[in-house]
Design brief:
Elements: E1 2-6, H1 29-49, E2 53-56, H2 70-77, E3 85-92, H3 98-111, E4 116-121, H4 138-154, E5 159-162, E6 167-171, E7 185-188, H5 192-200, E8 204-207, H6 212-228, E9 238-246, H7 250-261, H8 274-281, H9 290-297, H10 302-307, E10 311-314, H11 316-330, E11 334-339, H12 345-362
Parallel strand pairs: 1-2, 1-11, 2-3, 3-4, 4-7, 7-8, 8-9, 9-10, 9-11
Antiparallel strand pairs: 5-6
Length: 365
């Protein structure tokens, strides 16, 4: 089993506790610079401790994430992270130029000597406002963009593309990927449609902002569809993202977490404008199993989040048991561990405890 450290590059300064998009009224340039440096320092530590991956992602218009272009952060990481793979989970390809995405991934793969993991996502519903893209076209745009990106990576002769959403007179990218034929691709897989597309195209599946029971149901559908297409997914084909905070024992971890969350501004994905999100959901964004998506996003108290596998919390032994449960129920081969809350030295110690006490054990699974 592999472990990744995911940092959203969250803004640590005065922030508004409100809806999306978040205005820049209380923005601090100094706090933003310190927040970015903190993420780079934690990624460097994870690399030194033996984490298999470090992970960055794309989000817009909110202090939850200061990486609207994760390619830029990944470029910085090529100079900091010397051993671990750099996973971009991901680029939100329906709202981007897919040829540019293919070029940027190829640049990063060259700069890292073939250590890039290519997450191709549709993004959160509210982000279709970011670049004025029709969310009703999201899935079709995603599928066409992904096919175009793969062709740009693998076709050695210049080619033209005339599709429903994208048109290019000629494509011939330089540099080209180090990994042959291209980096490992993952996509988000909570909906049945996503699982079926991933299985048909032999793409890995990732789960985030969900629960282990819901992810296990979606992963079973993915594996069933893969067998229909004549292949069997490996454990590494399934990623599960989960928040974590590890203390020296259960009491310390719980105390740290509760204290850190008191009065914290709501700057996560749940802060999206509800009216906007509901309107976009009505376009069919979530696919044919909208009820699963409602369950996935519903609020839960801390104990429910622990029980449902949304957060790993406790001392090393307790967290090991929680990880064992995720492995048993979901069969994920990659855990994408998210810093639950930034707590200064306590967060650093939490990352160190994962590297020292947990990674040596799960690596043999």
């Amino acid at each position: 089993m592999k472990a990744a450290l995911f940092s959203t590059c969250k803004y640590h300064g005065p922030a508004l506790d409100g809806g999306w998009p978040v205005p820049g009224t209380v923005y601090s340039r100094e706090a933003a610079q310190e927040s970015m440096q903190l993420s780079l320092d934690q990624f460097k530590l994870a690399d030194e401790l033996g984490f298999d991956w470090v992970t960055v992602a794309e989000h817009h218009f909110a202090p939850f994430s200061l990486t609207p272009n994760p390619m830029v952060m990944a470029g910085a990481l090529t100079q900091v992270v010397k051993r671990a793979k750099i996973a971009l989970l991901g680029a939100d390809i329906p709202i981007l130029n897919p040829v540019r995405v293919a070029e940027e991934f190829a640049m990063l793969d060259t700069m890292t000597g073939g250590r890039v993991v290519a997450g191709m996502l549709r993004g959160t519903p509210n982000e279709y406002v970011t670049y004025n893209i029709n969310p009703a076209e999201s899935r079709a745009r995603f599928e066409e963009a992904l096919h175009l990106i793969k062709m740009a990576w693998t076709q050695t002769e210049p080619f033209g593309w005339q599709g429903r959403f994208y048109e290019y007179r000629t494509v011939s990218i330089w540099p080209r990927c180090v990994q042959a034929p291209h980096p490992k691709i993952y996509m988000s897989g909570s909906s049945p449609e996503a699982g079926e597309f991933a299985a048909r195209n032999r793409i890995g599946l990732g789960f985030a902002v969900t629960t282990v029971p819901l992810a296990a149901k979606a992963a079973a559908h993915y594996r069933e569809q893969a067998r229909r297409y004549g292949w069997e997914p490996e454990p590494d084909d399934v990623i599960y993202r989960v928040g974590m905070h590890v203390g020296k024992d259960d009491n310390e971890a719980l105390h740290d977490y509760v204290e850190a969350t008191k009065g914290a501004a709501k700057v996560g994905l749940t802060m999206a404008n509800r009216a906007l999100e509901s309107a976009i959901a009505e376009t069919g964004y979530y696919g044919r199993d909208a009820d699963m998506q409602r369950q996935r996003l519903m609020p839960r108290n801390l104990q429910e989040r622990i029980d449902q596998g949304q957060i790993l919390l406790g001392g090393p032994d307790t967290v090991m048991k929680q990880i064992e449960s995720i492995k048993r129920e979901l069969g994920a081969g990659v855990l994408d561990l998210t810093v639950a809350h930034q707590m200064g030295a306590k967060t650093i110690r939490s990352i160190e405890l994962v590297g020292e006490k947990i990674l040596p054990q799960i690596r043999h699974w």
